[in-house]
Amino acid sequence: MVPRWRIVQSSGFRRPGNDRPCCLPVPGRVLRGSGWFRSDPEAIAFIRGTEGTLALRRVQQSRQRFCGDRAAALPPIHCKVISMEQTATGAPLVEMRGIRKSFPGVQASDGVDLRLERGEVLALLGENGAGKSTLMNILSGLYRQDSGDIFIAGRKVDIRSPKDASALGVGMVHQNFMLVDTMTVAENVVLGMPSLPFLPDMAQVKKAILDLGERYNMKVDPDAYIWQLSVGEQQRVEILKQLYRNAEILVLDEPTAVLTPQESQELNVVVGRMRDEGKSAVFITHKMDEVIAFSNRVMVLRKGKVVAEKMTAETDPKDLARMMVGREILFRIEKSPFQPGAAVLALRDVCADDERGLPALRDLSLVVRSGEIVGIAGVAGNGQRELSEVITGLRLVKTGRSEEHTSELQSRQVI
Model-level pTM? Predict the structure, then answer.
């Protein structure tokens, strides 16, 4: 690989003949994040000039986003380069060395080393509490490591906040979405972006969201309020928010926990498209089949330590399960015949609405017998919570009957 150079410091963006900064992200941050040169002559030629025309991809995207159709008619953007540095040859996009993080009574990360290459999808696999989310919360700036170093593209960085992580191209989609329900999709996407003016051009923001949705096949209405969207659509907003901010490293924390199988396949297509564009992703999960389907490489965590690291093509679900829990796993459970007793709870044709006034339970019937365990399966947001609240009398019931007591279910009546 040829040496690569990074602009470390510049005088800032200026239009020729204009002393005022142009409407672009903070000078220097964009340069540090994307000012790459692939050869020594190219870098030397640029740094020798007192001014150089800035034609970098991320800057061009920013101009298009803020200026829309007027971007093509704008004069070239110039900057004065003050200093540059040569980056490490062949450095991974992300490298975390000896990361340690503890909470009272818990060693969440115990000397973890992680590498993420460009255009790679890395699966972080482990049981609940293995330290997967903690490690990525450190990378995304939510936590500070107790010790250890983080390198982005070969350069040591100090990530003190999510703002720092975003400036370095790191974006995280959390398992519990960070969206404001009472705001629209477009407002959530630009919320907290320091590079935007106080009153951004929302028409251009909406157009950019629609363009990203078309590009990645994640269509969503920019004018819709978050509370009006399904859980799967809200996840699209989270991903679009990171893509809008030019994230090159996308961290997905248990992204399929709230998705239907079809939505999970659509997410796999989106991640693959990002990978083809040279972006990288970290996929946090504890589901072996998703590791096989989504990732190029898998790293297994157990009790805060890395216990295994393999290429996905060289492993299988059984091997992954063994590495994850530290022992052989039986994928078949032998059960003896079961004879349930009399019904202790019987619901018939129950209907109830959610907080938005939309139907959550439609003519639901359920029988629970003595001595049995009844499992309620379904993707989050499909009525499980409403059903439990109806049974305990915490949710208003429109219609329904308890067959056991032959009486109508009433609001706030515990049965």
Answer: 0.64
